[in-house]
Batch of 2 targets.
Target 1
Amino acid sequence: MTPGRYRYTRRGGGSASRSAVFAGIVFAFAVVACTRNPPEVTFYKDVLPVLQKNCQECHRPGEVAPTSFLSYEEVRPQAKAMKEAVLGRRMPPWFADPAVGRFTNDRSLSRAETEIIANWVDSGTHAGELKDAPAPRQFADGWLAGQPDVVFEMPADYEVPASGMMRYVYGIIPTNFREDRWVQMAEARPGNRTVVHHILVYVRDPTSTWLREYPMGRVFMVRDHGKNSPIDEVLTGFVPGAQPLVLRPGQARLIKAGSDLVFEIHYTANGKSASDRSRVGIVFAKEPPRQRVVMLNVANYKFVIPPGAPAHRVDEAITLYGEAELVSLHAHMHLRGKSMEIRAVYPSGEVEKLLWVPNYDFNWQLWYHLPPGKALPRGTRIEVIGTFDNSSRNKNNPDPTVAVRSGEQSWDEMMMGFIEVAIDVGMNPTDLLRSSSSFHAGGQS
């Protein structure tokens, strides 16, 4: 039936037609009325469960969000701003295109959850009955991943000056492990978020020569930090918006007996002198794992972004020479980062887009975790395509008049696609790649 062309043909149908039109008008007014008068929802019964599930991990004292969402008294003044943020899909932060891939840690609110918040605001932000509230969500004090089995911290406070360019700062801490330990969860925590740009915590192999000329037990800044070798793996890290390392049962990272932890911290001066002592918490696997999880870095260090370029493309790729299971993906660029795509080219020639971040945000650098079982056959090529906006239309651009190259500082750029893969526990990670440059290199984040 063609819309708008139906008519009554029965004799005397004028009355029926008028009745139908009247009924349609009444229905339309009813729809409008319902839209203008959304059903009343209350904070304790309807809104608080949504906040507990999706928001409180960050919106609580001591965490990254500037406001706490634990109580009605804290949430009520933020109600209108919260509604605008969820309707505009700015919160919770999630930047993967929903049409590409499926991720187990998707932070996006469902349509029903978004409507609950919007209707609560529109109907008057009523508290409701306290008896309807769910039990408070429990968090380990100071940790997102739960109470650690062991905590390692930088060997001393580091004094960050009020201004000036900051090179990477390092601290080396012995684990004193007398046997190999498998790690299920790990979380890097800044001591002072206002000055910490990023943290990387490496596991330095007992046979590695990386940074051996520097002593244990002190914090130091070096002009040439060199590169870690493929046997020095990343344990975990911190960047804005990042979540702790939480691996599935049966998967773990390895810390060999006699290994050291190397903290690499990039501080950013903010106009006020500050002090920091960052730390990392570790939760050990309770059972021997079936798979070992390692991090690979698909990075290009040799690009030049022309002045004013609105969409400059930079590519890089690696090939896997062993079988692996894809665990998670991460896009890393700086202030001129515009978008990133990570895709797999399989030995059959099939191309699959794994992750598409169309609107990259330097302030929220998220990991995207895949469901179990995503196989990467031997010979799979992982391709990363980054696009940069060096034009004046980019409000975050430090200077659109200069050519931009790879570098450590935020006004420089980086093009890195990180992937975490799970391999058989008996496999040497270096056998996965023929080029050691594909493993994450120290001082390049």
Note: Residues 1-35, 435-445 have pLDDT under 50 and may be disordered.
Target 2
Amino acid sequence: MPVSKIMRAAVALDYDNVQLQELPVPDCGPQDALVQIKACGICSGDVTPWYIRKKCPTVVGHEPAGVIVEVGSQVTRFKPGDRVFVHHHAPCYGCRHCQRGFYTMCETWRSTRLDPGGLAEFVRVPRENLEGDTLHLPSYLTFEDGTLIEPVACVVKAFRRAGFQPGQRLAVLGLGFIGQVMVRLARHYGAELVLASDPVAWRREKGLESGADFVAEPEHFAELVGEHTEAGADVVMVGPSSSAAILAGIECAGRGSTVLLFMGPEPGVKLEIEPNHLFFNEISLVSSYSCGPDDTRDTLYLIREGVLASDDLVTHRFPLEETLQACRLTARAGESLKVLVTI
């Protein structure tokens, strides 16, 4: 148990206004666990103005890993000292959405959360999250490895939603952390060809290191895809959420292909497309929102097997009191991949 009843937490009061505040350490209920956070990643959602503003004021961070310091009297699967990854959402497993495998559509999944958020010294993990999607971290994995589970699981789900198969040709728009993971997983899953684009030269170089066959600036990407695929890519993964990026993804799509939208556009954004082109080429537009417990378990396996490692993907680390600087670096989308806050 923590010695003090007061802890530090990074609180977003507005976009680009994250302050270190003192908050009460959450009380641990009989079916809960209290986790001392050791590290937490910064997600693009933490630095998306419209998305973070609708939550403010809020303790930012939802990619945490840490050590259980207290469990409730009714908890049997976990004990103090356990090293864990905790997911900020967990499903009920029993509703119609869960039975169909759409965990992120579950009302319980959408209402669950960590108390108060991942970028705090201590977090209360409610019963639903503890039972539904909290995973033991093996001793040979670092807490930094643990922070990768949630964001990588989102990519694992994206491949599943896109129906990706070995031997297919993949086009990736955006080579930040998520794009690098897409490239690496495509290689692991047996892609025949991986093409990628990004406006930042440093990230394009990192994309080649991750396993992309060819990279290009966004304005030349459709030409690159056409040159190396003849008819277009089999699967196109669009990282950026702008209409321009989505349309660019459709331009790279071949016949019978799937274009996957990884990020959610801002409410009200419109997309003008030509249905005739989609129809006669049987191009599917698919979205992939967040991840569920099947995805986090698959991801833990991938990390355990060495398919992905924090040493390859984490580029910057900040202390808790410098969370705002960590967010700003992530928002710049320049020469950085995964940015972590260590606590």
Note: Residues 149-161 form the longest helix (13 residues).
